[in-house]
Amino acid sequence: MLIDIIALLKDYSFLSKSTIVLLVAGFMPLMAMSYFWFMMGRKEKKYAKNMREMGINTNKKVRDFYSPGKFILPVLFATAICLLAVYNIIFVDDFKNVDSLLLAGPYFGLENTALINQSRGVLSWAFVGGFIWSAQNILRRVISYDLAPNVFYSAGIRIMLASGVALVLSFMLGADNTGATSFVNVRASLPAVAFITGMFPDRMVSYLMRVFEKYLMTSQLDLNTKHLSLDNIQGFSLNHKERFKELGIDNAQNLATASLTKLLIETPYDARQILDWIGQAKLLCYAGQNINRVRAVGIRTVYDLQKGQKSPAVLQRLGDSVGLNQPLLNVIYDQVNDDEGIRALHNFMQKINSPNEPTMIKELEAVG
After folding, report:
1. What single-letter DSSP state applies at residue 102?
2. What is the 3-state secondary structure (H, E, C) of 37-48?
3. How far is CA 28 from CA 31, 35, 307, in A?
4. CA end-to-end span of the chain, whole Å?
């Protein structure tokens, strides 16, 4: 009887562990299916509303970018990584004291049990941090009708990057009774460091790069691109930067030349907000390091330059009021007025601000 009870408990434990593995690994495909079942129709309605308000006639459709087939490989990629990671965490006893180059690093082959166990703990907490961040990001994207296929690739790569960075940091500390030399006594904080690395792997990598440059590099290369940073776009938060980075837009020049319909389809933001950001980015490309002086006279987007008739005398007074070189302001003004794409974007903005007025249907190809 006692043997039967023990066997039942063992089976129950295995069933519980297997359930946890399936729940964690099944999160990714469940979110993808939920998005298509409940949110895709709402995204299509929102996109159609934006196109109608701007008077744009285009053949581009939401499902051209969000077809179910495009989700298969990204979802399988993220699911496989989660399955492998959580299985090794839950069924850790099956791999106990297994020496490997990944877990032991430079001490491989020396049977360093303490270091191997430390590495397992670091990898586990890095996965937990990466998975929690990815899960809440995916949930937020589902709710905002913004779940693109590359989100799942990003989730899998984030977990892998976090695990690698956390593991390298742990090797820097060594482990007790291994004969390794530890130069920082923060081993008790390794789970917290690994968890934070899982949440923000890019920032940890950036931090390590800054440390490397500070102590090991004698000079730094100035690329003179600070003024084109998305940080100079008003209303642009860290979340906005991370979202646009997924689309390959990591500076103002990329944003200024981005396709309007593509941004409307692949991001959750309203047309008015995207048009404002594009208008700021275009002005930033023209004004460069003088952007703050241009904004000081009430010109924050290229659309503001097209409002009213700005004669050379008016431009001179504006430039003199903030110490801005008048020829530069004239050049910016002429370039903006000669850009047909900017005029089209300005018309779209006016139509959105006055959606009830009759509008003329224009092809989006006029603005790329």
Report:
1. H
2. HHHHHHHHHHHH
3. 5, 11, 48
4. 76
354: left (phi over 0), alpha (psi -120 to 50) or beta: beta
Beta bridge partners of 362: 56
Strand-pairing partners, residue 363, are 57
Alpha helices in 289-339 (DSSP H): 291-296, 302-305, 312-322, 326-337
Structure tokens at 241: 């930067």
Q: How many CB atoms lie within 10 A of CB 335?
A: 15
Report the distance separating Cα 164 and Cα 272, nearest Å.
41
User: What are 261-308's pLDDT values in tens digits?
Assistant: 888 888 888 888 999 999 889 888 887 777 777 777 777 888 877 776
Residues contacting residue 332 through CB under 8 Å, at least 6 positions apart: 283, 286, 287, 294, 305
pLDDT per residue as tens digits for the range 148-194? 888 899 899 988 888 888 887 777 665 554 444 444 445 556 667 77
- Which amino acid is it at 26? G
Residue showing tokens 């990714």: 28
Check if the beta carbon of residue 230 is closer than 8 Å to that of residue 25: no
Domain ranges of the chain: 2-216, 226-367
Amino acid at 67: S
Q: Of the candidates 198, 201, 193, which has an alpha carbon nearest to the alpha carbon of residue 171?
A: 193
